[in-house]
Amino acid sequence: MPDYHDDLRLAHVLADAADAATMDRFKALDLKVETKPDMTPVSEADKAAEELIRGHLHRARPRDAILGEEYGIEGTGPRRWVIDPIDGTKNYVRGVPVWATLISLMEAGVNGFQPVVGVVSAPALSRRWWAAKGAGAFSGRSLTSATRLHVSKVDTIADSSFAFSSLTGWEEQGRLDGFMDLTRACWRTRGYGDFWPYMMVAEGSVDICAEPELSLWDMAANAIIVQEAGGRFTDLDGADGPGGSNGAASNGLLHDELLGYLNQRY
Questions:
Q1: In 60-82, which positions are buried (b, 16+ CB within 10 angstroms) versus exposed (e)?
Q2: Which pLDDT value is given to residue 102?
């Protein structure tokens, strides 16, 4: 199996640079915020962080492709860095500390591009999570000061904790009835949103989570971290990995039942 240690170290360097840039503008009274064509907000900090990461990658990995939320795709080849400079921009612009920079390296394979390295850095929470293919998932302050992550062993929906972001997308897709049935069947539900539920699945503090509308940059880093912690990450149709337009993560034991609820139709 390839060794991705150097790529993981680089991803941490990229996250360090992004953290400094985003924290510098967090809660700034003169923060500039625009509305994108899809009606979602983008701040000057989103753009600056992605530009910073791209600049580092151009110097360190000039032959790799880059896909970012704000500036799209550049380059071709079997290796592609996927960047969400601020996952949780709505939180960021309102001063809520639940946001993170998501950085992933994906490699081409027989099943298309799959993540092999992922870093999720949430500086306002003083938390960081990371993983590399075949090397496990970890959380901590640095590569040398870390705790290995393991998903939970909860094996019944009635005992499970379920995290989600909002109700809107489920209703638009005709999945709201199944979603509500799932919330009633679970022991506990919480609307944490964005990257955090996936990190809690990896840590074992949440057992299942799902979102109905996502892009690749929302999922790639989260997926490899959940998978390397022993869990499962698929789209709502059950295809493994972050290749779909939505996502579901679990400790693996509850995954089929999770998808069963969310795919109910009335």
A1: ebeebbbbbbbeeeebeeebbbb
A2: 98
